[in-house]
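Sanity check

After download, print the first record. It should look like this:
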Amino acid sequence: MNQKTGSFMKILWSEFSIKLLSEIYTYYKEKASPSVAKKIKTDILTATKQLKKHPESGQIELNLEKLNEGYRYLVKGNYKIIYKAISEGLLITDIFDTRQDPIKLSDEERKTGSNT
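Expected structure tokens:
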């Protein structure tokens, strides 16, 4: 719960993170099966629900710390769900495959996409 108001935080998704979630779903639907794709997507969506009550439950994202925007993350399976607090609630900015080089978190597209 939000300690100041006693209410739950609203979870918002950037266009970039929605695009990534869709790409993850499509990839697993084609490479594995629709049921595997649905499970991975559902697991990611379910993981973000804990943030409504516990917005600071994710760890600080050290790879984005230099941006001074308070990025945090949750890990679900092979994916790092990156988010930050904004005035309207919590914004999911990125879904990053942890099997990739973490330096990619600093890619310009990711930084730009996380602001929408």
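If your output differs, re-run the checksum step. Summary of this record's structure: The beta strands are 11-13, 59-60, 72-76, 79-86, 89-97.
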